[in-house]
Amino acid sequence: MIDVFLERNFEQPLEAAFVQEEATQAAHGCLDLHRIRWQGSLLARDGRRLVCHFRAPDTESARIGLRQAGAEVARLWGGTLHDAPGEDPATANVLVERAFAAPVTLAAIQALEDAGSACLQNHRVRFVRTCFALDHRRMLCLYRAPDAESVRLAQRLAGMPLERAWAFRAVLPAAENSTPRR
Prior knowledge:
It contains 5 helices and 8 strands. The protein is α+β, with helices and mostly antiparallel strands. Strand 2 and strand 3 form a beta hairpin. The protein is globular and about 50 Å long.
């Protein structure tokens, strides 16, 4: 099983309850058939951006199952998760999107982040988790911070590549959703 990520944008804002219901319904049909397990989603505060995390046998199985469930899968990719030592991913509240024209290594990006750690600290920004694409051209990073603007500013001052940063709310499978998260 691998980690698979689906990025989507919406004209009309989504509500967390709608995301929860859609994921639950899909899991009882096409996703189960293809052995795809929804791990949770990150919904932008404005409801117009969504990143869904799945576990699947491979990216193609995820693509087929999600397409059959009615999802747009143009921005679906396999990746790996990397958590910061001692940080709880449930505390993250801002997502940073990074895209690279040529493949990069996780170590190279980590070196940039380490070099700019003072900028992050000055803006009360803490790195929590990275989702790193298998092709090494895409990265989603989760941070705990006062707000998305603090993360944008700290990232720019630290010289980090940044496509966009946005505040999110975690939407988790029902069994895990019994305790409130940010």
